[in-house]
Amino acid sequence: MAVAVVDDHAVVHAGIAGWCAAADPPIQLVGKYQTPAEFIADPTANPSNIAAVVLDLQFGDQYADLSAPAILCEKGFRVVIFSHYIRSDIVLDCLDMGAVTYLSKLEGEHHLVAALHAAAADRPYLSPTMAQAMTEDTRPSRPALSPREREVLLAWFQTESKALVAQRLYISTGTVNTHLERIRTKYAQAGRPASTKAALVARAIQDGLVDPNDL
Question: What's the CATH fold of domain 2-136?
């Protein structure tokens, strides 16, 4: 799997390069970029050849730049935020934009490597920073899911494909898709869209629909 890093600190690039080389299975670091603009301008960087993008939120003296994750997610990249910002509103905003995982830089090698492997496999990864932000989320708009929708949702979080969900619950893959699309529609109607699996995990944990220990 190949990943790119967007961060303006050489020590961060060096550290992540070492962690990726030592990972099991190894992670190939294919690009080191100083700014989001530099990454976006690179014609060789696209979601088909980059499994995940490790993205910082602060460049130079500027405050947390939330435009960058929004742009990269819209382009189809799996974005793993790796930042020193741990404010819950910033974490939740990034997940809302479509970031697959949010990590504090203090969480280091173990969590980042695990998050990158999960992103490449299109699996959710719940970091301590994400769990804390979700616990503190007090937004009231929670859609009502049926017991069957909750069952399908949890099964999907615990497996790697919709086909495995169908096998576990003795239903068709089409029925799984129907349930998941209905859940996404409910969240969109509540003003809290969840376009990625990671975002849907975040929503479900925030709303008490699933327990992090079940994932």
Answer: Rossmann fold (3.40.50)
